[in-house]
Design a protein that fits this description.
Two copies of one chain form a homodimer. Chain A has two domains: 240 residues, Alkaline Phosphatase, subunit A (3-Layer(aba) Sandwich); 152 residues, no CATH class. Chain A has 16 helices and 15 strands. In chain A, helix 3 runs parallel beside helix 11 and helix 13 runs antiparallel to helix 14. At the A-B interface, strand 15 and helix 16 of A face helix 3 and strand 13 of B.
Chain lengths: 418, 418
């Protein structure tokens, strides 16, 4: 009988870690600027390359990017951000429910958006606001049930439940500031879409009334802070139907992430969600807690995805210097845990997309990738950054192929044919 | 009228030549270890790259791998290994015939598999056993005709002919040792599948009776060798319907190979099979005979595929050292013929998949490829191995594109568009 040495797979996704060179930091990228001995050591002892999450030049979102990295073609499987956020928030989603991603935001008296993130309101304040909205469906005496749940900072999820609903509803969030909130419109001529947009409109008007006079906002106003006086739903959608990674690859997987969307994509893929204490999905996340949780997860799962968000946030804030410093923090925190798993794990470090800290947005440039572990063909690249990795032994790959590559290296994949 | 210089194309496939670094040979791959001036000379004067036979991270079999390298997407065209083996064994296969790949194997009294290869029984012994089974269908007074043919070593092919058959039959070969033979089961509820599995079961039981008391086995038992007392069919399938390479590329092709499966795939593609005396499909094959036959074939065909198997066998036996030595043998044998064809031929050397000599199995890592000939863009890679070729001018390509690339370089391919 043939003995096959099967290994675990660890995928560390540094959100939006890839960048373009910035004049602010000497025409380097944050990865080129950062001192990162751990990543460079893994690059030197492994194989590197560049990867297009979906396809070359296509900038992806957090949702479509992560779907692709888990092997799901988003052009086939993506049904909107709302349901993935809802799954990530721990909501049990029925196949007929319609889910929306929501922001707490600040609007003027005549509904002009002043701040899409309500002055990046704290988790504690947002929780208090959310709890007041819990019984709103009863109060509105709707025959649809409304579930609102706060996730991280200004973010939350709204789910509408009941018969005769539709996900063909326009975004309320105008995606920019200085313009009026767009009241929801049905996107087709069905009764269900009309009805759903009415339910949503009632919710928006009523919830604004409640939020305006909420003690949290009165206190914020006193302190000169922006009030969270409105909810901006977007990304209406229903539960996507994904074959699980267990079905596809025969592996048991888990995710460790702060943000809801990442947990949601992984839950949709049939993976378990493991909470690391202090994992906030922000630049102040507890990295030590995340890495030690990861080590534990590697004992119980074939496949562990660890997601770190702060790199993306620094890029959206157009701060390549801060991004480089945060990369250094991650590198140093990971370094302390390296010897605990290096021998028996196929480890892959990459990003889900490029976030350009010059324009402050996701862009479609490829991301650098490194893979380290037993049996990996070691190339001569010894730095983990966008330029160095483009000369690596993996060449240029696609996100959809990533799990096949990793599970093959871990000797998990079965042969196709004879 | 434009004069176009049309060249011949020679594709040398070293089966499973690609590998992963192995500690046994200083963390090198067998290609990195081997002294191979001929391959390196061709790499230096040509263009190199890496190739995914089907797609990144997907380990392929001999059948699916060769289909892909000949431009046939196995997800579209593959109908099982059986019919391809049968074609390769020289059997004329009708569209309704059901064909199985078979192994002579050793089983205990209660049908537990002891050796799936019957102690790698010799060709001569297997031939004698096979001839006894020739008239078995008459003896069994079946209304289906059974054709059994020995191919190489422990390998053979079984074809069932007649009305009302089905290929929806489970593998009898359990694919591992220490477990019981799985009697054939119908894989759907059709009468044809039930009937076919009964015919096959009768054949298995009756052939075992005959094999047990065969003089070859009595003699083997006396000498302490494992007996070939059972046949293990697998890979039931019907003739695939492939557009020929003549239709697709306008070329006349031929194959030189020892193993039946490689001849079979090429016959299915409409290529001629040329037998080289002493080509056994093993590590003891007569390389000189193969290369001189190849030179002759290049005079008569636009496209010649030369297949060499031993590299794969050495990897399955987890012997990277032997694999490197065999690569050196091939390199040196080819070197003697180089000047006879180098000027007028586009020559491509590659593998059909990675066979990892650490785990002893096919894996999904890409394979190195070199292309040499007039007009080829010469890159600066001067070694033919997995790591060096990953820096080559071809980048990372797919097996399905290989023949297009080669026939284009040979100036055979017509323009698409105007």
């Amino acid at each position: 009988m043939t003995y096959i040495y099967v290994m675990r797979v660890l995928l560390i996704i540094l959100d939006g870690v890839a960048d373009r060179p910035s004049l602010k930091i000497g025409l380097m990228t944050p990865l080129q600027l950062a001192r990162k001995p751990t990543f460079d050591l893994l690059a030197a002892g492994g194989v590197t390359g560049i990867m297009d999450p979906v396809s070359p030049g296509v900038p992806v979102g957090s949702d479509t990017g992560h779907l692709a990295l888990l092997g799901y073609d988003p052009y086939v499987y993506y049904t909107g951000r709302g349901p993935l956020e809802a799954l990530g928030a721990g909501i049990e989603l029925g196949p007929m429910d319609v889910a929306f991603r929501c922001n707490f935001a600040t609007v003027s008296d005549d509904w002009v958006v002043i701040d899409r993130r309500a002055g990046r309101i704290s988790d504690e304040e947002a929780e208090l606001l959310a709890s007041t909205l819990a019984d709103l469906s009863k109060e509105l005496s709707l025959d649809a049930e409304l579930v609102f749940k706060h996730t991280v900072e200004h973010r939350g999820v709204l789910v509408i439940r009941g018969a005769g609903l539709s996900e063909k509803i326009s975004d309320v969030d105008p995606h920019r500031e200085g313009v009026k909130v767009q009241m929801p419109r049905p996107l087709d001529s069905s009764d269900n879409a009309r009805r759903t947009s009415e339910v949503l409109r009632n919710f928006l008007v009523k919830s604004r009334e409640i939020l305006e006079k909420h003690p949290v906002n009165i206190e914020r106003k006193k302190r000169g802070l922006k009030v969270a006086n409105v909810l901006l739903p977007r990304g209406a959608g229903r539960l996507p139907s994904l074959p699980s990674i267990k079905e596809r690859y025969g592996v048991k997987g888990a995710v460790i992430a702060g943000g809801a969307i990442y947990k949601g994509v992984c839950r949709a893929a049939g993976m378990d969600v493991i909470n690391a204490p202090g994992a906030t999905g922000t630049i102040n996340t507890n990295l030590d807690s995340k890495f030690s949780t990861m080590i534990e997860a590697l004992c119980n799962y074939d496949f562990v995805l660890l997601h770190i968000k702060g790199t993306d946030s620094a890029s959206h804030d157009k701060n390549p210097e801060l991004k480089a410093r945060f990369i250094e923090k991650i590198d140093s925190a990971l370094g302390k845990y390296l010897e605990k798993f290096l021998d028996d794990v196929i480890i892959c470090i990459t990003g889900d997309h490029t976030t350009c800290s010059t324009v402050g947005e996701h862009r479609g440039d490829p991301v650098p990738i490194l893979i380290h572990g037993k049996g990996v063909r070691i190339d001569d690249v010894n730095k983990f950054d966008e330029i160095s990795c483009s000369k690596g032994g993996l060449g240029r790959i696609r996100g959809l192929d990533l799990l096949n590559i990793l599970f093959d290296l871990a000797n998990i994949t079965k042969m196709y044919g004879e």
